[in-house]
Design goal:
By secondary structure, the protein is mostly helical. Helix content is 90%, strand content 0%.
Length: 70
């Protein structure tokens, strides 16, 4: 019974994180192309945001593992 919920939790978290990190990277590349002098600030902000998005995906996977152990 919890298997479907666990799969959805982990799958949607991974899907959302993949889309989010892709958008972050694409927008950062576009911003660096427009303002090359701000590359270090843009890159730092991009990496921090990508790490936070990946953290949310990790929470989704942990919830999936917890649901499968019940």
């Amino acid at each position: 019974m919890y298997g479907i919920g666990a799969g959805l939790a982990a799958g949607l978290a991974a899907l959302g994180a993949g889309i989010g990190i892709g958008l972050i990277g694409g927008n950062a590349a576009s911003a660096i192309a427009r303002q090359p002098e701000a590359e270090s600030k843009i890159r730092a902000t991009m990496l921090l945001t990508a790490v936070l998005v990946e953290g949310v995906a990790l929470f989704g996977e942990v919830i999936g593992f917890i649901l499968t152990n019940k």
